[in-house]
Amino acid sequence: MTKRIISNGLLLLLFFFSTSLLAQSIDLNVKVTDGQNGDPLIGATISLPEIGKGGYSDENGMFTTNIQPKAGQNTVSMKISFTGYANYETQINLTNPEPIYKIELVQEDVRAEDVVITATKGFAQAQSDVTVSIEVLKPRSIQLQALPSVDKALTQIPGVDNQDGQLNIRGSSGYAYGVGSRVMVTLDGLPLLSGDAGGAVFDLIPVDNLAQIEVLKGASSVLYGSSALGGVINVITADPDEKPRTVLRIRGGAFDQPANKKLDWDGDASAKSGSIHLFHSRKIGKLDFTLQANAIKETGYRQSTDQEQYRGLAMLKWKPIKGLTVGLNASISVDSSGQILYWDKYFPDSTEVNGEITYSGGGLTPTTDDGGFRRQLQSSIALDPVIKYLDDNGNLFWYRGRLLRNSNANNTNQSSQYNIFYNDFLYQRTIADKINWVTGATYTFATIDGDSLYGGTYEFEGQQITSDGSHDQNSLGLYTQLDGKFGRLNTSLGVRFESVQIDGSARSSLPVFRAGINYKIAEGTNFRASFGQAFRVPSIAERFANTSGGGVVVEPNPSIRSETGFSAEVGLRQGFFTKQPGYKIKGFVDLAGFRMQYQDMVEFGVSTANIFPELDVRFSSINVADARITGGEATMMLGIEGKKSFFNLSGGVTYIDPQNLNPAPDSLQLDLETGIGDIINLDTKVDQPPILKYRQRWTVRFSGSVGYGPVSFTTNFRYKSFTEAVDQYLFIVVSDLKEFRDLYPNGNRVFDMILAWDINKKNQISLTLDNAFNEEYLVIPGFLAPQRKLTLQYRVEF
């Protein structure tokens, strides 16, 4: 009996011991890389459906989790997927697991598109799978253009234009004198718009540390809030490589004489520009850091527009424990420059002495009228904290913030400063391996101080208010979006609600919605359709600017209403790929039709006008129109790559029909371009033409490169058709504007040419000829674009 009890006890003990062995936890380590070049794949989806675990690979392509096997369970299936790569599935042996499972994913044959994240605010998607139009600009194309900042590079993207710093996607924006933007500019998903005027702050973008720039076309307020009516430009920075990396870039350039030699204000002297850029990044254990410093100096191709600028950037990321990333970016920019509103007059003065004629003034000489020339010192400081945590079950918690402080001191009594504190709290996860869910909240608080620029007395809601120029604005936004992938069908559905307060006065926005589908008809063939609502809260400058300059008087309008609208699009994309011995061909053709419609569109317009005893025309931001922009766009990319040679061609054509739905009747429409005699009717006529101002019906963008061995030649081409409608008052204050427009009624065509030599993997020399044929054209009325410019750049990587 005693022996039986002892035997049974030993069996029971052995059972529990073996069960506990099987129940032991196992650490699973997976590294996901590109099977062709070995690069880590960031954001690959790893799932263990049998035990309900999963997540995403980190910046090093690593995924780590802990498995608690069930009794008797010896294997578990693991699935890995990443956009643009074939799905991978394997069995994990739980009794003898490998220390690290090294998984190499293979690219799918049809892979002409890039991987993008802007449409979902974090989840990776193939460019062809997105439900809206999206373009990608790679660092190489920016480096070749030898640019000190990214703003000019953006104009090479189809459908995108930059009018003196004012970004425009498919005609969504015109020109609003540097205030307000219908295009949201973000740096790593965080807004990069100024606190007072709402314009893009390009100076804080680290041009030498870019992963890529993504341009999302169409209403995007669900994820990005106000100012995303026309779309989003998201600049994505690069993480440090496994090996330390140092880059030194030196550039120097000189301008040629203008096409009209009579405008050459500096004679034998030639306007010049130069800059030096230093960049370093590395990993030290669990710490990633990046440092960048730039010094830029230009004498200015227009008289009195010299610039001296210094920029610095530090980016830190620390990963103290598995799944947790803590980071802080700090950047600073100091800019001393001269600016002009518009030219003195296009045609220069002439003087004859002893039969010799000399010329002075003209289109490259600034007006000296009241406030027409500005000397300014502007400084910006930004701090961007980030906390990111990914748990073993694939739940991502992400906080991103930005504290941006700017000060602008100038000699035109228009000094100001602002502070913005932006916060984004985001949660992401994948549901049932099919639906990517992102939800979150944003909170923004801004203070603006400019007694000489935003102060004064004005009327608001029936009361006389006297302001010292101090204003504040805060907003709270809640958003959620679901992006599902069901076989051949991709879907997207999102909603946002945002409430805005300005100087303590509540102004709540309506909810905005978006929805889209993308269906894979066949391999490489995708059809998409989308609809999205959007809104824009007018900037502090649009509400409270109370200033004058260059003969223009601007008055405040605190009662201005927010813009609302929507965009709809259908598109068809065909990708192709072929590989033959010695070469491969890949590319795509994309066709899109779109419509954007806005209510209460905001523009600067005439508020009051007097003729006698002297001309006195005053302007303010007003809700001038309901608007509709209908159009189409065709984009393409073709790449042919051989063993030693390559050929690339990319670009597109965009057509828009920009209609003002509430134009003035012909009898009341102000027309100073065809007859200056209409000036006597300024007090009875209005400037509301049937065509939206500062838009071009046709824009064309193409870039072609050919290379053999270490040498390549690139040509960039840009075309804009004639700007049909501009502010009529400009024909009074900008001399010779009508005459210049008569000289160039067919728009402008600009070619840039780049010759590059990769001396070796570390050294590169490039020679850039901007505006190669010295085309003369306007950026905005009274503002001549740069003439031909030759730039030499040397880039070395240690």
Structure description:
It is a single chain. Strand 28 and strand 29 (463-467) form a beta hairpin. Mean pLDDT is 87; it is low at 12-23. The chain is mostly beta strands. 42% of the residues are buried. The longest helix has 21 residues, at 2-22. It is built from 8 helices and 47 strands. It has a 22-stranded antiparallel β-barrel. A 5-stranded mixed sheet has the order 10-15-16-13-14.
Give the arrangement of secondary structure elements.
Blueprint: H1 2-22, E1 26-34, E2 45-48, E3 53-56, E4 62-67, E5 75-81, E6 88-93, E7 101-105, E8 115-116, E9 125-126, E10 134-137, H2 139-144, H3 151-154, E11 160-163, E12 166-169, E13 183-187, E14 190-191, E15 210-217, H4 221-224, E16 231-237, E17 245-255, E18 272-284, E19 287-298, E20 307-318, E21 324-340, E22 349-353, E23 356-360, E24 373-390, E25 396-410, E26 416-431, E27 435-449, H5 451-454, E28 456-460, E29 463-467, E30 470-486, E31 489-502, E32 505-508, E33 512-522, E34 525-536, H6 540-544, E35 547-549, E36 552-554, E37 563-580, E38 583-610, E39 616-642, E40 645-660, E41 698-708, E42 711-720, H7 730-733, H8 737-743, E43 748-758, E44 763-770, E45 778-780, E46 783-784, E47 789-797
- The oligomerization state is single chain
- Portion in helices: under 10%
Radius of gyration: 29 Å
| Main pleated sheet | 22 strands, antiparallel, barrel
Instruction: Give me the number of helical elements.
Output: 8
Give the termini distance in whole angstroms.
81 Å
Number of separate strands: 47
Residue stretches low in confidence (pLDDT < 50, at least 5 long) are: 12-23
Structure classification: mainly beta
Gross geometry: globular
The mean pLDDT is 87
How much beta, percentage-wise? over 45%
